[in-house]
Structure formats: C-alpha cells, structure tokens
Design goal:
The complex is a heterodimer of chains A (227) and B (533). With 227 residues, chain A is α+β, with helices and mostly antiparallel strands. Chain A has ten helices and five strands. Chain A has three domains: 74 residues, Ubiquitin-like (UB roll) (Roll); 81 residues, no CATH class; 25 residues, no CATH class. In chain A, helix 4 crosses helix 7 and helix 5 packs across helix 7. Chain B is of the alpha/beta class and 533 residues long. In chain B, strands 3, 4, 7, 8, 9, 10 and 18 form a seven-stranded mixed β-sheet that branches. In chain B, strands 12, 13, 14, 15 and 16 form a five-stranded antiparallel β-sheet that branches. In chain B, strands 11-17-19 form a three-stranded mixed β-sheet, with helices on one face. Chain B is globular, with a radius of gyration of 23 Å. The chains are: A alpha+beta (227), B alpha/beta (533). At the A-B interface, helix 1, helix 7, helix 8, helix 9 and helix 10 of A face helix 5, helix 6 and helix 7 of B.
Amino acid sequence: MADGEVTIYIMGKAYRVPENLTIMKAMEYSGFKLKRGVGCRGGFCGACATVYRIKGDYRVQEGLACQTVVQEDMYLSMIPFYPAIKKSYDLEELSPEENVLMQLYPEINRCLGCNTCTRSCPQDLEVMNYMNSAIRGDIARVANLSFDCIMCGLCASRCPAELVQHNVGILARRLYGKYMLPEADHLQKRLEEIEEGVREKQVEQLMKKSRDELKRLYNSRYIEEEE
Amino acid sequence: MSYPEDMQASIKKVEKTRRERMESDDFPMLSPEEKEDLLQKYHPDYRDDAFRQLKIGANSGDSLPHEVVDILEARSMIDPDDFALEPDRDVDVLIIGGGGAGCSASLVADEMGADVLQVTKLRMGDANTMMAQGGIQIADKENDSPAIHYLDVMGGGGFENKPDLVKALVMDGPRVARWLEELGYMFDKDEDGRMVTRHGGGTSRMRMHSARDYSGAEVMRTLRDEVQNRDIEYIEFSPAVELLLDDNGSCSGAVIYDLELEEYMVVRARSVILATGGFGRIHVSGFPTTNHYGATADGLVMAYRAGANLLFMDSTQFHPTGAAFPEQIVGLLITEKVRGLGAHVVNAEGEQFVYPLETRDAEASAIIRECEGRDLGVTTPTGMTGVWLDSPMIDQIHGEGTLENELPAMYRQFDRFGIDITENPMLVFPTLHYQNGGVEIDDSGETAVENLFIAGETSGGVHGKNRLMGNSLLEVLVFGRRAGRAAAERAQNQDYGDLTLEHVRNYHSEMEAESVENDRISPLLLPDYREED
C-alpha cells in the first residue's frame, strides 16, 4: 500500500486515490470525466450532493463532493438529481398568510421531528427548526433560517417523511422578500426620476465629453466616506 | 488536515514579524511608475510569451492569450459536409445558457409571449452568477445617480468601455432592483426598507447592494424558481455546439448536443440568445480559477465562427487572492474584505512586500513577482506556490470574534479542512476571475450577426478592460432582460431561415488557408481534469 493513499469505492468499485483529495477530485483522479454532479466546485451550487458510508459503520453520511475529503474505505455515490416535488405558483397571486406554505406543501405536517434533515445539511442549517416554523406558518423565520440553503436536496433525499425542505425554504424566502420586506422608498424615487428623463440627460452629457475631460472628472470625483 | 511541517516553519516566521508589522503598518503604496513597471513585468496581460497572433476570423491580427487562440483556431465538432440540417424543433426564441443572463432573458421573452426554449450545458443555475458573493451595484440612493455610476464604470474600465453599453447598464439598474424586489429577492435592508449598501473597489458612492454573503446565489435561485414556475421549457445537459445561419447570414438556430445521449438536435429559431458565460476554465496562462466547471467560453467560439467580432479579449481579470492551499480549494476566491479588515500579505520569510489594498491587477502582479521573480513564495506539497495572507491579524486589530462574524463563509471553508484562520494565515496566489472582454454587442445585446443576441460575460465592451466588483451581477440582469426583449420582438416578424453551416465550412477553409490546422475541437464544453497528478 503506497503511503498517503486510501481506497475508496465509487458506486461500489474500488479505486486507490491520494488521501487528501476531495471526493470530486478523487473521482477525476480515478478517471471519471464528470458531467453530472459537478457545478461551481466551490460549495455554492449544490450540484454535487453525495452520500457515503465508511466500512464497518452502519451510518450513511452526507456531504458535497467538492467539499468533502475522501477517507479510507469510503463507499460513496453521488445524488446528482433527486425527484423532489416542486410546486409551481404565481407569486403575484399568493399572499404571505400563515397557511400558504401548508397549502402548497401540505405534507410538511408529516414531519416526524427526527432531525435527519438538520444532520444531513452540508451548510449546517437548522433545517428541522425551520420546518417547525413552516408548520406554524412563520414565513419570516423560515426565510431567515433557510437563507444559506444551496438547494442540494440532501435533506429531502434523506427525509423519512418525504418532505422537500429546500423547496419550502425558497417559497418562504420569495414570499418574505416580496411581501414582508418593506419596499425601498429611495428606489421608488429614483425610478420616478428616470421616468421623467432627468437622469438620462445627465448620463448623456457625460457621454459627450472627451476622454480627457472624463478622466479629469473621474480623478477629481467625490468619494463618499464610510460611516 | 493542518499545514505540513515546512509550511509551519514559514508560518513561525510570519508570527515572529507580526507584532512589528502591526505596530508600524506603514508599507508604502506603489507610485504610478512603480505600478506600471510591476504590471509590465508580472501581470499576465503583459507577458508577451503568453500571447500569440490570431490568424483567422474577424479579429485576425489581434494578439490574444494562447488558450483563447487555441479554442478559436479549432474545428467544429460538426462536419458541415456530413450533417443533416433537418430541424427537430421550431421555436421563436432559443436561449443558450442557464445562468443569470439566460434566465433573465427567458423570463422577459416569455412575458412578451414568445415561445421560448432554453438549453444549458449543466443544470439550470450552474453558472458564475451562483457564486457571486460581493453584491450588485445599483445607483438608487439620494447621493448617487446613474451618471455618477457611469463615471465609476468608465474610470474602472480605463475609459475603453463602450459608452452606450455603460449607459444601459447604469440606467437600467434601478429598474432591475425593483424587478428583483417583485420576484421576492431578499435584499439586505434596514427596517424601513432602505437598502443596506457598501463600497466596492472603485465605487465613489456606497452602492453595493447585497443579500448577505449570497448575493449571486439569491439571484440565481430566485430566477431559476421563476423559470420553473412559469413552465418555460428548458433542457439540461444539452449545450449548443454550433450556431446555424440562413442564406443572408442571419442567425437562425443552433445545433444542440445532448451530453448524455451523445445525440444532436437541430433547433430552428427566429432569434437566438447566447448567454454561456466566460472563459475561466480554459485556465489562461495556467492559472487556477474561481469559475464554475462549465466556464469554457463556448459562446465566444460559436459567435466568432458565425462572424461576430471580439473586444478586449487580451484583458483578463485576476483576483489577487485565490486559495493556494489546501489542494481541495485551490483557486477559490478569498474576498478582498480580508485585506480590507487589515490582514497583511507577506512572503515565506514573513516580510511584507506590497501594500495590501493596491488595485487588483497590481496586487496580483506583486504576488506573482514574489513567487516567480524573487523565489520568496511558499511551496505546497502539490507544487503550488503562494504567499501568506495574515488573517490572524484581523482579530488582533478589531477584537476576538471579528473574523468569524465578518467572514463566516470563509471561516467555515477553511475550518472544513482543519485550518483555523483566526490562528493561522492562509496561503494565496492570484486566480483567474473574469473575462473582461467578449463579443461586441449593441445596447439591445445584438451582435454583428443579425438575430444573434448575447448577454453576460460572453459579451464585451460593458466593462472596458477591467470590471468593477458588483457590475457583473448587474450586467447579467440588465442585458439578459434587454436581449430577451429584443429577441422576442425580433421573433414577431422574422420568418424561419433556410439553415446552413456554410460559415463553418468557410471557417475550416480559412484555417487551412492560414495553415493553422490542428486536431483541436471547440467549443470545449467541459474541462478535462483526468490528467492531473
């Protein structure tokens, strides 16, 4: 056995790989040219949801292939797609009432409170916690607790009650962003000014200036101070 | 995994100089002459040996990075003499790309009643939009205006930007912000609804809007959700590999390739939008990249073969601080905020060699000089070199807990690999971040090829020779929407063309005539990392 190498089992088949690689790089090292199960490679996109088990341990664990380092005797399989239900809705027609999450995803009532979703979240989110909030209809809390969700779907894939935590989360965030966060007044004012045409004229005046004039304006421009 | 022994020895030196460095904290900024000299000698854009002359197409004669020339001087996957151009699908608007620009275009074209088909190489949302952390620039505060934003963009781009595109960018910003609000985007706001805004590099007003550390992810998942809600048809794992023109040279569709079935599909369209992103994954000059897996400049290649022209493709944005260790996260962006909070950049001996907040190009060049010119970098077990970003300074300057509060994502990222960045510095090296140039468009997104529209990083001109932080998220939304609108309008009075691959045949002939024939095939579609190690 070469030093610094481990044996991993990609979908059951053994490969020797350097011990410090991520699952994703270990698969490439083993000769896979990935099509599915790969996206941003930086932990943001949720494309590379993976389940794995270490030989001798009965527990199946979860992680992102781009962020999880291989271990000796790791049996792994990617879940590049999971057939989770996603409801279509017209956000304009919904209102942020207590029962809206329940209406679209009535199965959230089936939550067993087992906490598997929280344990499986690669972002360490309080998933079960926000599912409890969803059952209570607390949209703001669901939106805020689920905010860092990368929608990899590992929670849903492991949920014994077959809930779709990540899809409930985005519904709550969009309701919250649209209906519960107040609109920006200064933005409304700016839109009105643009409608009137004054702001466009100012830009057009700059467009007429020579490169040297523009440079001079740029170099002498006021820089707002951070408070 | 913590740092190996020889790296730890260098960290000891960093620790030893820390107190003195913090006390004096007077490392000088570069003078304009020093900066120019540094850029000339070490910035990858100025390295003659990194460039060669492009010999074919509309930009022949331009000096471009080898990797760009390599994908442009390459043959199509398709043999035009042996390919049946029978349309498998007829649509109004074909949208190629499933990122921020493609989804914006889809939503607007759909609203205008067009029959839209969106195709994408990976999954919907696998795009650089998803990864944008910094924010989005919008001139919507009282002390700001689109004109002030305009001046910032022009100055940042070295006054090379196309003015009409910059005008579109800054004028549409507020409308885009409202659109995002309507779609349920969770902007950072105070309790009255006022946007929380900050500065970014090169902004004269605090106009960086955000959604925590996930500004781009919040854009992407919201747009994707809306595309799904509207039942707009999209096909994943199906990139375009060639554009189709008609007898008049107007764009009339594309050949789509199913990555899994390895089958072609011919789509005939009344208008086409390319939104395939930039070129990070071709690894210009061998640099690691912050970009997502699919950033292989496919749209650039296809548009160029179809006759469009390129702008500023000699200009690449390198972010000075990409991770150089551990191996798992090489190339990953380490935000400028680390230096903003006071962390020094120091070499293997623990010495400061550059002011920490030089412009990105100069900061990156100084780090390259330290590693390659002076041999004062730190070498990792996999052979990368880098310099230290002295993150433990942050808590020492601002108080314990600051780093974890201000940079939670970064802290988590290193903690996963057993490195506590409040205790140990991070090893960094410049990383390829953004394709400043691209295909020339007008302010509706249309290219020199009629009926071919482009939005996002594939296009060039908006940012001149240097993009400012926060203007790319804005760009994908503004020009995605503009292209969606213009392409849908065009489709209303555009007949289907008689499909041809004559432009590909001509391109291949030109390659023969210029003796640049080779075995390369492009677009690349996917990078190949199987050869590593």
